[in-house]
Each structure stands twice: as structure tokens, then as C-alpha cells.
Amino acid sequence: MVPYLRDHFADPGRVHSDGRVTRVAIETAREQVAALVGARPREVVFTSGGTEAVNAAVYGSARRASGATRIVTTAVEHSSVLDAIDATTALVTVQLANHEVGTLQPVADVCAGARDRGVLVHVDACAAIGYVDLDVAAIGADLTSITAHTWGGPKGTGALVVRRGLRIPPFVVGGAQERARRGGIENIPAVVGFGAAAAELATTLDDEIRTARRQQGRLAGLGGVAGVEFESDPAHGLPNLTCVTVAGLEAEPILLALDQQGIAVHSGSACSSESLEPSPVLAAMGADADHSLRVSTGWSTTDADVDRLLAVFPQVVGRLRGLRT
Hints:
By secondary structure, the chain is α/β, with parallel strands linked by helices. The chain folds into two domains: 2-202, Type I PLP-dependent aspartate aminotransferase-like (Major domain) (Aspartate Aminotransferase, domain 2, 3-Layer(aba) Sandwich), CATH 3.40.640.10; 206-324, Aspartate Aminotransferase, domain 1, CATH 3.90.1150.10. Helices cover 41% and strands 12% of the residues. It has eleven helices and nine strands. The protein has helices spanning 2-6, 17-37, 50-65, 79-82, 107-116, 136-139, 177-180, 188-218, 251-260, 280-285, 303-324, and strands at 44-47, 71-72, 91-95, 121-124, 143-147, 158-162, 228-230, 241-246, 292-296. The strands form two sheets. It has a six-stranded mixed sheet with strand order 1-6-5-4-3-2, sandwiched between helices. It has a three-stranded antiparallel sheet with strand order 7-8-9, with no helix packed on it. Helix 9 packs across helix 11 (303-324). The longest helix has 31 residues, at 188-218. The protein is globular.
């Protein structure tokens, strides 16, 4: 990314030689991202992140529908889906993998059923990319949202994969960038970083999945602490995520105590971190949303990190329970 911050910063929409340098960089990244997710390069529309990609899919489908009044979704969708829905939307939208408990959903079956009825389908793959072998063509979705930051790419960039032949009105207007599908000059360094991360992951994905499953498998040891229940199902979920609830203790004091020990976990979803409301996903599942912790592993996680959590977690929970009594 550094050369595109320091040396190559021309508008890629210009025809001069400097502009052509940045245009080549963007199109190379587009090919790299497309190759990772099983898409054609021309289907990839770069956005400012997964949230914008989801909003663009919902908004564009609503504008295209011209009077349709129904939407089909689930009670465990990401807030960027639920917050973007209104009564004029005609779309089926579903996550490939849930962002809080990791559950993989049968999206190919959903896409096939909707196709038989002539209804567009949007698949939110933001939580899944980087942790499953994602093939948008095999899934059969009309629209697929992806992001870069959850698996080691730069923050502030993502993409909406638009099925070949489908045209939807742009969500961000005011320019003809991205083949008139998203207005505004491209974030060239972030797009380049997105592509570079995708190219790297294409060669390491299988190894990273195996490592994540092994590390997450060791987190079964958290179940040895009294009152801990698992809300995620490792047999049908992402390899990098475990969600637990701790009876009798709210999540925040556990989170803060672990942070003091150098361990970063989270309560709820990554995009609800500014909200004080309990997780709607866990509430819909009937779980105790106020007492939930999400433990994620990734490309930077070491076995020593897992050792540290397994050693410290029982101490933290025991100490906090002692304070309550």
C-alpha cells in the first residue's frame, strides 16, 4: 500500500500516465479479490467496507423493484441489513455465516428457491470471507457483500459482488466510478491492500482454516468453568469463532478483566460495539445476550495466546464471582 500513499496518488479516472498507473493497480486488485471469491473481475464493485456493500445491495434492490413491498430475511442478520430495510424492498437477504455465533447457513438452497420464484438474493459473506472457501458462483447469489478487515486486510474497504448481467441503481451517487456503479474516487491504497491480502490468502487459506479449527477446538476447555455455556456450534460454523455465555456475570466486567491480562475478546458483534443494547442476534436465539462473550482467532493468533486465555479465564470468572458474593 505504501507506494500508493507516497508516490502513486493520481486519479485513476484520468488518461494521463500517472492515472493509468493507479488504474492498473485497481484493476489488478479487482482480479485478485475476484479470484479469491470465485467471481469475475467485472462483477466486483469496490466500496468503503462491508456495511456500505450491504446497504448498496438492499438500497439498489429496493430501487430496482418498482413497487414491490416484501422482504424476506432472518432475525439474526447484521444490523447493516436490518437497519437498511423498509416496506418497499423486494429482496431475500441472508448471511453466509453469522457474525456473532459463527453459524453457517444454507445459502445455496435459499438462492435456488428464490431463483425459482424470480426474486433477487443478497448474501452477506462479510463474516465468512477469509475463513471458508467462498465461491459466489457456486452459491448462486445475485449480490454478495464482502469486507477486508475481518481477515487481515485494511479497514475501510470492501466490495459488493454483482452477478453478471444484473444492474441495480448505485447507493453512492455523484460520479461514474466503478463502471457507474459507485460514485466517488476510489481509495487506492486500501483497494491495493485488499487485493494483496486476497492474493496472499488464496495460497494460505487451507492452512489458516486448519489452524483456526485447532485453536478453537482447544477453547472447549472454557466449558470446564462453572456456568459457561457455548452458543456456537463448531460442527456447523466458522472455524475462528466461539461464543459463550457466563451465568451470573455480565460480559463487560469479564471483558475488562481479561483486557487487563492482555487478552482481547468482545461482547456482541463488531458493529454493535458503540451500542449499549444487548445483541439482537443472541436475543433472537433465546440466549442471554447480556452475558455473552465472543472469542475470535485469526491470522495473528498464536498457540501461546490460546494458552494464556485458558489459564486466565477461570481466575477472572472466579474472582468476579467472589466480588459479587
